[in-house]
């Protein structure tokens, strides 16, 4: 299967080995938002019986990567998407299945326009992590860039 035929989830699992470890489920991927689910897996629990902070970080970062690929996948021949900075806040006790919703923070056209001008554009992605009852258990704010190929 070529990269053009793969879903965003399949592409991430094929190219980023860490993504495969958590059995993430890709529920939605568009150029504006991506929604991923982390199943409740005891082997990734922490000392209080919920998902480990590292698993939550990977869930959120993977959701951000999914929206970035959905938005800028057509730019991969001339640039590499890279996270620049990430800040994570853990707000409430996380238990059970978690869902991460990532939202692109700039219009795609504005970012591509900067890339066309020879710049290295940066853009924010925000991610909310929720447990099954809807409570937000964590948030991530991540800055991504499209590094032009030399």
Automatic annotation (TrEMBL):
Pfam families for the chain: DUF4442
InterPro entries: DUF4442 (IPR027961), HotDog_dom_sf (IPR029069)
Superkingdom of source: Bacteria
Protein name: DUF4442 domain-containing protein
Originating organism: Streptomyces pristinaespiralis (strain ATCC 25486 / DSM 40338 / CBS 914.69 / JCM 4507 / KCC S-0507 / NBRC 13074 / NRRL 2958 / 5647)
């Amino acid at each position: 299967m070529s990269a053009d035929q793969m879903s965003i989830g399949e592409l991430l699992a094929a190219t980023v080995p860490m993504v495969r470890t958590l059995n993430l489920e890709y529920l939605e991927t568009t150029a504006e938002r991506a929604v991923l689910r982390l199943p409740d897996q005891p082997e990734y629990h922490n000392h209080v019986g919920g998902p480990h902070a590292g698993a939550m970080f990977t869930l959120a970062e993977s959701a951000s990567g999914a929206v970035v690929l959905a938005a800028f996948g057509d730019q991969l021949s001339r640039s590499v998407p890279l996270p620049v900075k990430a800040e994570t806040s853990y707000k409430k006790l996380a238990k059970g299945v978690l869902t991460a919703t990532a939202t692109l923070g700039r219009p795609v056209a504005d970012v591509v326009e900067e890339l066309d001008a020879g710049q290295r554009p940066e853009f924010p992605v925000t991610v909310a992590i929720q447990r099954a009852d809807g409570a937000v258990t964590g948030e991530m704010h991540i800055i991504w860039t499209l590094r032009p190929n030399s």
